[in-house]
Amino acid sequence: MIRAADLIERKRDGEEHTPEVISALIQGYGSGEVPDYQMAAWCMAVFFKGLSGRETYALTDAFIRSGETLDLGSELGRRVVDKHSTGGVGDKTSIAVGPIVAACGVPFGKMSGRGLGHTGGTLDKLESIPGFRVELSTDEFVAQVRDVGLAIVGTSANLVPADKDLYGLRDVTATVDIVPLIASSIMSKKIAAGADAIVLDVKVGDGAFMKTIDDARILAEQMVDLGGRADREVVCLLTDMEQPLGYAVGNALEIREAVATISGKGPPDFTELVLEACARLLSLSDLDVDLEEGRRRATEATFDGSALDAYERWIRAQGGDPDLERLATAPVVKEAKAPMGGSVAGLGALAVGIAALELGAGRRTKEDSIDHSVGIVLRAKRGDEVAEGDALAEIHARDDASADRAIAEVLAAYQIGDAGASRRPRGILLDVVG
After folding, report:
1. Which residues are identified as catalytic?
2. What's the CATH fold of domain 4-50?
3. Which is it for strands 197-204 and 375-378: parallel, antiparallel or unpaired?
């Protein structure tokens, strides 16, 4: 039996826990032996004193062993890949990456989550497709990755339940923002879900959880280290979230943009990120190709129709209708027009995400419902020249009142300077770790 008070005191004083102690702590919390108030105190001690690499891996391993695990590589006799994003505005990357990777002959299996606040969730976007099932049994998930080459499903309730419980506690005790706990939360789910190689997209900037490149790099290095300790190959892409990704923000709107991208017609920044993620995943697969060849094959799949075919097979396999005409459309569409001419010097990702949230594209609490039809389509981004009266964005709304509120919020997100004065926008990929 452990004494949680002793562990809190030791961590408060900067001592390192053994793996056995951390395992016992997580087991005790899961069984109710360690109450919420003591676990919250331990998390706060970690906030100030941190965890070593050994402690962080022990916590990750304890999360994994609290529930079921999958080994997709053994089940399929193939090297299976996965991708995860730390969340951003307009981030529909997995929906485009999965079909391209599958079209190149590499199995892609992903367990995903829902959005909360200004960050959209992959499952919410997929549920805008009529009939699409995000809840598959473990056997169905494995069978679909084997037969179709691709599945994206909701996280099993039996997968790392200890992390789910602890995250709920951290969310209400101001202890979410702790890098070792973030890293162990993300990596426990990725490792338990059974992929052999993982590309992590760590967002950086205004619309992301990690606001600076230095903080993002620290998180990335910890996740790469955790993957290595668990015999997984992990690469972290540090990518720009100072402005929304692509043009579309909102569930059905983002599905349309993802399909356009896998057909070779996507926005430049989103296309660049998708192809980079695909190239990394293919180079980590069992195809025995390097990064350059991986990018060539991924690009070819978007232009020869094979990625679109893979997308349609995937959607049908999970009960959905891939016909874009079946997606919901908002009854009101209005333009947010530029109040002056010049260059777009900035476009706040967070402000656009909140505007989409208030339109109904996201949820403030887990119980909120989502309107899949509403959202924002940007018409100008950083570095673009605009004239007074040009459309900066389209607002897709339920009614005129919410559209007008969103117009004001989106206009406030834009910074317009003198024509030709804006610096060349930085690329989407900021750094690579691993």
Report:
1. 84, 163, 170, 185, 189
2. 1.20.970
3. unpaired
